[in-house]
Amino acid sequence: MKTEFFYRSYDLDRATLNKEKRSIELPFSSETPILRFMGNEVLLHGPNNVDLSRLRANGSALFNHNPDNIIGRIKNPRIENKRGKATLIFDDDEDGNRALFKVESGSLKGASVGYKVLKFREVMRGEEYEGIKGPAMVATRWAPYEISLTPIPADVSVGIGRCATRSLEGIDIEKSNFKEDTTMTPEEIREMIQAEFKRILPETAKQITDSVVPEVVTQVRAAIAEDAKPKILVTGEEYNNLMSRAGAISDEAKLKVADMVGEGRDSQYVTAELLKLATADPDATDTGGGEGNQGTGHDGKRSNTPTQYSKVEDVPDDVFARMVTEPNTMPTFN
Q1: Which of 111, 145, 94, 112 is nearest to 16 (CA)?
Q2: For residue 77, is the peptide bond before it cis, meaning its omega torsion is within 30 degrees of 0?
Q3: Which residues pair with 321 in a beta bridge?
Q4: What is the pLDDT of residues 134-192, one digit of tens each?
Q5: Which segments in the chain show pLDDT lower than 50?
Q6: Which residues contact 303 (CB under 8 A, 6 or more apart)?
Q7: Report field, pTM of the whole predicted structure over 0.85
Q8: Axis-axis angle for helices 205-228, 186-200 (nearest 10)
Q9: What are the beta bridge partners of residue 133?
């Protein structure tokens, strides 16, 4: 599996440091949502969710995720009250003693775990899964690989986590059949903005969001409404060409082209509809309005006398092509 590591960091509890046993208790995971590139990530901590075999078999403690700087070993990795915990035993060597001293002095403040997600469950907005409200990506199967001590732990309360990759390649993703509610309430928008400002400018977050939220709400709603509109799938040149062909049939055909383009139909679809209109029975009452004005009805005369066919399938390829490009030269059908 080519999945890259994800990382989470937590504050060390220096009160659990035991200098005589050269040990400290480490928190390494929880169900706190972490904001990733794909949205909120939640790690489930049930008995069938976490694979601790890697930590138990190869449980080395590192400094700052450096595999060449081993400071001790991981003992008794476990899940308690939906949190991952383990005991770090410092090695009695230069690296281990240095790390132990730095933890005691307060220089090393955090523990960080590197893990792989094996399976995600997608949870849509308005949906709830295992007590977790969407939108979220819930890791239903994941495995911690190593635990490190770090100088500066990530602030998980803000919800920003590290990830060594910008891809979910190699992860089994269970898609949701739930129809997502894409409507955002003003309160949800406010919370989203406040969280971002809190991360960037914590002191002025409330002041800024109170002043900008109404305008942002308006813009977000307008963007959602605009996104819901049918997309125009024809170019300006294609539209002009379609209208020209429709004009050769009738004014009604031009209106129909405008409607179809507005509904998001593509050029191929509109052309096919025009062909249907062009091959329909002509208006028997249209004689062209007088002598010298050749109409399309049975009483009029066409400028090019067409051949009669019993059905469209009988029309030769060259005539069929002209039916599309030159509607005024339509054959008749008996």
Answers
A1: 111
A2: no
A3: none
A4: 888 999 999 999 999 988 665 443 333 344 344 566 677 777 676 665 666 777 777 77
A5: 1-3, 155-166, 281, 283-305
A6: 294, 328
A7: no
A8: 130
A9: 128
Tell me the two tokens of residue 232: 């125009």
What pLDDT, in 10s, does the model give residues 1-26?
344 788 888 888 889 999 999 999 99
| Residue 9 structure tokens | 């960091």
DSSP state string for 109-170: -EEEEEEEEEEEEEE-TT-EETTEESSEEEEEEEEEEEEEEESS---TTTTB-EES-S--TT
- Cβ neighbours of residue 194 under 8 Å, at least 6 residues apart? 205, 206, 209
DSSP string, 212-266: HHHHHHHHHHHHHHHHHSPPP-S-HHHHHHHHHHHHTT-HHHHHHHHHHHHTT--
The letter for the amino acid at 109 is K
Q: Cα-flanking dihedrals φ and ψ of residue 30, to 5°?
A: -160, 180
Residue at 15: amino acid letter: A
